[in-house]
Amino acid sequence: MINVNNISVSFGGTTLFSDVTFSINENDKIALMGKNGAGKSTILKIIADVAKPTSGSVTGPKEAVIAYLPQHLLTQDHVTVFEETMKAFAEVNQMQKELDELNEQLTIRTDYESDDYMKLIERVSELSEKFYSIEETNYDAEVEKVLKGLGFERKDFSRQTAEFSGGWRMRIELAKILLKKPDLILLDEPTNHMDIESIQWLEDFLINSAKAVMVISHDRTFVDNITNRTIEVTMGRIYDYKAKYSHYLQLRADRRIHQLKAYEEQQRFIADNQEFIDRFRGTYSKTLQVQSRVKMLEKLEIIEIDEVDTSALRLKFPPSPRSGQYPVMVEELTKTYGDHVVFEKASMVIERGEKVAFVGKNGEGKSTMIKAIMGEIDFEGSLKVGHNAKIGYFAQNQAALLDENLTVFETIDQIPLSDGSIKIKDLLGAFMFSGDDTTKKVKVLSGGEKTRLAMIKLLLEPVNVLILDEPTNHLDMKTKDIIKDALKDFDGTLILVSHDRDFLDGLVQKVFEFGNKRVREHFEDIKGFLAYKKMNSLKEIEQS
User: Fold this and answer.
1) If DSSP codes are grouped into helix, strand and coil, which group holds residue 427?
2) How wide is the angle at C-alpha 8 spanned by C-alphas 246 and 306, nearest 5°?
3) Radius of gyration of the chain (CA)
4) pTM, full prediction
5) Which CATH superfamily is domain 328-543 in?
6) Pairing assessment for the beta strands 465-469 and 493-497 based on DSSP bridges
């Protein structure tokens, strides 16, 4: 259907990738994988025709509809959510308008023999064929169904888009894309800023209702659930696997074993021939043999081994100062904004050393509860922070709070390290800042890089209560694994707000569910919670 033909991208003397070729078929569900900076988003932009390759092309049927959801949106229209979403049908509405105008012309014109009249007839015929091939749709009902699936409530439909955060505006754009029923959907980190229930709905939609999909995502579970093919971008080229992500990891490991074996054999072959050349160079009787072997080595295509992050550093927190037995105690807590009740009479006790998750739909009070714990808002009821509780807080916008004029190295060098064995360069290397990266100013870093840096900064401060609000947005899987392992070993208290099921799995022992103006305590891990809530579908959370 869509063909990517030998595309290459070079800038500043550096080649990002070269001669990349693959096809996207009608029902392909493709995960585009690779480490940060490999060129995944660039490939997506080229297919979407919002960026141009240095060489090569993308071809496909003229009528093919390609829809693209970028990682960051800058648009903001002063219209309601419903009006903005209805723009998905702008093309159909425009088509109908043009058809009405042309038909009106046909009724009043009398120049039946003229070329203009014949062109008019042809245009009406062409448009009619296209317009009447579109299934009759109740657009209002379709918009409502998709918006509700993505987490909007009916009362949100009439609110201005400007009132919503970037994450929610992203969902509006996603709704418009899904309503267009495109031939190919391109998604760059679609689950950032989405709650678990909305992700589940999106999964169902992409599996059962979408045609071809290509997605970049660091949400392992999401990728595994929706894809049947994995394209890996590494070292300037691609590898195409007819397999979902978890199976691809096994295949990649097997491939690397074969690569290493072939590489070692080739190196032995080169060494043997080089020894022969060195030994008999200048020997008259062996001249032709020496020349032949020199030419052969010159023409030899050297086997490359896929790059793998080999950083061995296991990140550890400094020992946390001992807090009281109950770092957080909440009793009969109510929070309202005007007439809007966020939650009422919420109670929770978090013990020292517990690792808990706050889950629930967006807007149900998770971040509000965190603000109450941090003492940033007023409320009714009782909330006590226990004796000697030292709180470290990672907000969703934490990356924006970094000093942009400092370098990566200077940002971390400012923090007094309690563990003298930790070397800053090793630490930065574990978070994929190496070589020249450490001298970059913070202001030139990507969103993901800033998030990683902010995370390192937080992890090094001696605290005994960690509150992390969506810490894994924009992080690749290797970095998430490093952070997750560090958090498992953290000897203090952990409160996590996250939609990342894979990240929460094996990390938290208790779940607080926010919803319907209540906070419910579940004495089980995330798998147990999902099994209990899900039954057949996570949607049941919305009905609880």
Assistant:
1) helix
2) 40
3) 29
4) 0.57
5) P-loop containing nucleotide triphosphate hydrolases (3.40.50.300)
6) parallel
